Every structure is written in structure tokens, then in C-alpha cells.
Amino acid sequence: MNSVSFIGNLTKDADYKEIVRKDTGEVVPVAKFRIAVDRIGKDAGADFLDIEVWGKQAQNVRDMTTKGSLVSVNGRAKFDSWEKEGQRFSRIIFVADLVRMVGPRRPVQTGAPDEGDVTVPVENEFAMAAATGEKAAATSSADESDF
């Protein structure tokens, strides 16, 4: 079974593109980003993992995360290989099926363009509960917690 789960921080804002499928002409969103995952034990440090996510999840990553965002990623490992100028290269990337915010969401810009934007932090219910010492609701809809 090819299944992985990670929790880590984005090392920079996600790269977002919309790709047109050659066979159907359908526009498919894709976001690529790298997360730093802490190691524990004697070999403390971090591993840097390349993540790729498609569809609505890609749009949500673009809209709701920024450098430093703490996310949970569930997906699969994918072996990628190619040849360039006669030299072979390979790497493992992780294709996400689900990306969830673990910490506060990206700040939202408000205000009219001519009045200047004001940054207002927006947090998910679990981060808010942790900050205030209150108990978070046991359930939440997919719109609120899932990417």
C-alpha cells in the first residue's frame, strides 16, 4: 500500500498553475510546494519534502496558505525520473489527496482598493480554541477544515 502522512511548514508560498489537458481541453489546477518536517530523536533536524496537489485542493492551498503555514498532508509517494543533456535524474515527490490546515489560516485582505487593505487574521476553530483555552467543537464541516 502506497500511503503517506506528514505534518510540516511550507518553506515558501505554493506555486500554482492551471494546466489544460490535451485530450479534453479541461483546465486542471495544480499547486506544488515544499514542507519542512521535523525529525525527532538522535537525528534531530528537518526533512524537506516536495508536495503536489491537484483540483480544488490546489486552489485552496493557493488561497489559504503562505510561507510558514502548518499543514497536514495525506497522499502517496511517486517516483519521478527524467533525462536531461544525457544525464539521468530521479526524485520522489508526494502527491497529496488531502491537505489540511493545522495552524492559523492565511490572513485575509479587506477594504476597498483605494482605501488600502487591512490585514485581518482568520484562524480555524482548533487554533482559536487553543489560543483561548476553550474546547473546539467535536465536528466540523469539510468547508471549514479541509483544503
Layout of strands and helices, then pairs:
Layout: E1 4-10, E2 15-20, E3 27-39, E4 45-54, H1 56-64, E5 70-84, E6 87-101, E7 108-110, E8 118-120, H2 125-132, H3 142-145
Explain what you see.
This protein is mainly beta and 147 residues long. The protein has two domains: 1-102, OB fold (Dihydrolipoamide Acetyltransferase, E2P) (Beta Barrel), CATH 2.40.50; 104-136, no CATH class. It contains three helices and eight strands; from the N terminus they run ββββαββββαα. The chain has helices at residues 56-64, 125-132, 142-145; strands spanning 4-10, 15-20, 27-39, 45-54, 70-84, 87-101, 108-110, 118-120. The strands form two sheets. It has a five-stranded mixed barrel with strand order 1-3-4-6-5. A hairpin with a 7-residue loop joins strand 7 and strand 8 (118-120). The longest helix has 9 residues, at 56-64. The protein is globular, with a radius of gyration of 18 Å. The two termini are 24 Å apart. The model is unreliable at 112-147 (pLDDT under 50).
